[in-house]
């Protein structure tokens, strides 16, 4: 599991270790990574051209110290100071002692930026506020041929949220210290971070408010039938999806559901005959279910379908047209429910649920904040889909999904996700776990099915068993 902590938590954990050589540990890890990258790229560190961009705080200090370490191994290092009068004095002295060039001339800096083999972005770290300052902005736009290594996080990315106000430096590798920061896991910030490497420095932060699960974590959550299981004990999922107008959504939601570890899927929507023709395993008779999926392709039938599902005191996953109807009704529609509700909006649906003129673009730019806001307002677990899928609980706990491929942005992909995740709910997972495991496996299936080429939602559903096997290591 990757864990991410807020700036305040990092500061508190650092304060608890006052007197320990935290910066030395950070710099040692940073310099070792840079040396490894240079050796891989050009065979050796000796003779490499390295540019250090150093701001006014300890982030700049880390970059300058690492530059000094590389200079001692024969790299030709230039440091550009963005706030010369406030640069870290000890780190400046260390770099000066190697005979490296120091300058405050940004034209020299930009020329070196374009031709360096490796650039260290130490403009600003967890102390950064409010986006890049004007002196740093040209570096976010300039072309380059070398690798860019962000120190702790890419300058311009908000550490706590992943939001980017204006511009940010785009890194190939981010070397982060002590713990991940939420902004490294959540888009748009995550996109700027490249590959993230964690350098342990001995911090002991509290429970992480933001987590990213990995294979073993998800494998531990997935349902496994015991010797005593029969189809009813493994759970039955009810699907209220599809309509005369949109029968495809029903087929895809059911296709996802059939791979989600339930004993049976009970389809209660309109195009029942077609569903059974394609999926003969499906039950059409009414009866008890352990969870509902409602909304994909429900069209005009969404109001009735949503009311039916919410009236049943079992977990309910609301998607697509169900969400549009819920946005019309408002959070009050969920107020009386004792069983969990899971909402799976894309950014447009999330904007509608939030109301008040919030746009899809605003949701995409502040995923963490908006997912938490929705979860709190509706008292429901929210799975906010998109370039980084974020799962938020009403108490603010968040899991960020690390799997997926841009090819998953295809028609019907969300229907498969809804059916599959609903099945995990019916199989007994809590809403937070079902949402995180559902998004995770759906992303792995997308990658397997797409293999770097366009993919259909049906193919993603077919790849779910392979994803399940990969994640469980069988
Ligand atoms: N505190 C510690 O124990 C450790 C800190 N470390 C490093 O220290 C960094 C934090 O250092 P600081 O607290 O000095 O903070 P930073 O170096 O991140 O930035 C603070 C400085 O940048 C200025 N600043 C704020 N926003 C800016 C912006 N948008 N553009 C330009 N300048 C801006 C501030 O005026 C302040 O002088 C971490 O990111 C990490 O790199 C590591 O060495 C590990 C140990
Ligand atoms: K930085």
Automatic annotation (TrEMBL):
Entry cofactors = Mg(2+); K(+)
InterPro entries given in the database record: CARKD, Nnr, Ribokinase-like, YjeF_N_dom, YjeF_N_dom_sf
Q: Which residues form a coiled coil?
A: none
Q: Which Pfam families match?
A: Carb_kinase (PF01256), YjeF_N (PF03853)
Free-text comment on the cofactor: Binds 1 potassium ion per subunit.
Q: Which reaction is recorded as catalysed by this protein?
A: (6R)-NADPHX = (6S)-NADPHX; (6S)-NADPHX + ADP = AMP + phosphate + NADPH + H(+); (6R)-NADHX = (6S)-NADHX; (6S)-NADHX + ADP = AMP + phosphate + NADH + H(+)
Gene3D superfamilies the record matches: 3.40.1190.20, YjeF N-terminal domain
The record's section on PANTHER family has: ATP-DEPENDENT (S)-NAD(P)H-HYDRATE DEHYDRATASE, ATP-DEPENDENT (S)-NAD(P)H-HYDRATE DEHYDRATASE FAMILY MEMBER
What is the role of this chain? Bifunctional enzyme that catalyzes the epimerization of the S- and R-forms of NAD(P)HX and the dehydration of the S-form of NAD(P)HX at the expense of ADP, which is converted to AMP. This allows the repair of both epimers of NAD(P)HX, a damaged form of NAD(P)H that is a result of enzymatic or heat-dependent hydration.
What is the protein name given in its UniProt record? Bifunctional NAD(P)H-hydrate repair enzyme
Point out the gene that encodes the protein.
nnrE
């Amino acid at each position: 599991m990757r864990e991410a902590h807020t700036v305040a938590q990092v500061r508190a954990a650092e304060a608890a270790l006052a007197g320990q050589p935290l910066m030395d540990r950070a710099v040692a890890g940073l310099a070792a990574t840079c040396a490894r990258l240079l050796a891989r790229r050009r065979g050796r560190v000796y003779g490499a051209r390295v540019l250090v961009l150093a701001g006014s705080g300890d982030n700049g200090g880390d970059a300058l110290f690492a530059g000094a370490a590389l200079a001692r191994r024969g790299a030709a290092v230039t440091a550009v100071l963005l706030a010369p009068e406030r640069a870290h004095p000890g780190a400046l002295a260390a770099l000066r002692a190697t005979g490296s060039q120091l300058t405050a001339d940004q034209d020299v800096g930009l020329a070196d930026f374009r031709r360096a083999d490796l650039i260290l972005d130490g403009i600003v770290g967890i102390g950064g506020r409010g986006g890049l300052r004007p002196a740093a902005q040209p570096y976010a736009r300039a072309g380059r041929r070398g690798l860019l290594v962000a120190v702790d996080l890419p300058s311009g990315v908000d550490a706590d949220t992943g939001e980017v106000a204006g511009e940010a430096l785009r890194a190939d590798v981010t070397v982060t210290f002590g713990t991940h920061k939420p902004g490294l896991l959540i888009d748009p910030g995550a996109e700027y971070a490249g590959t993230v490497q964690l350098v342990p420095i001995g911090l002991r932060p509290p429970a992480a408010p933001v987590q990213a699960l990995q294979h073993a974590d998800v494998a531990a959550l997935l349902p496994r039938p015991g010797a005593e299981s029969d189809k009813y004990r493994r759970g039955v999922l009810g699907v209220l999806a599809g309509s005369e107008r949109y029968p495809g959504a029903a087929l895809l939601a059911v296709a996802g559901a059939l791979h989600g570890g339930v004993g049976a899927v009970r389809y209660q929507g309109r195009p029942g005959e077609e569903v059974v023709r394609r999926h003969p395993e499906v039950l059409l008779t009414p009866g008890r279910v352990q969870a509902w999926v409602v909304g994909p392709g429900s069209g005009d039938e969404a109001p009735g379908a949503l009311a039916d599902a919410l009236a049943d005191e079992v977990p309910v996953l609301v998607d697509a047209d169900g969400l549009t109807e819920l946005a019309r009704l408002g959070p009050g529609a969920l107020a009386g429910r004792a069983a969990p509700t899971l909402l799976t909006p894309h950014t447009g649906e999330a904007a509608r649920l939030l109301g008040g003129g919030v746009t899809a673009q605003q949701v995409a730019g502040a995923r963490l904040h908006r997912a938490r806001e929705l979860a709190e307002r509706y008292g429901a677990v929210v799975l906010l889909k998109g370039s980084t899928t974020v799962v938020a609980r009403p108490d603010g706990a968040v899991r960020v999904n690390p799997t997926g491929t841009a090819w998953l942005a295809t028609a019907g992909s969300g229907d498969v996700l809804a059916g599959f995740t609903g099945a995990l709910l019916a199989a007994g997972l809590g809403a937070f776990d079902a949402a995180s495991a559902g998004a995770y496996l759906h992303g792995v299936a997308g990658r397997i099915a797409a293999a770097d080429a366009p993919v259909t939602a049906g193919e993603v559903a077919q790849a779910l068993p392979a994803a399940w096997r990969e994640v469980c290591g069988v």
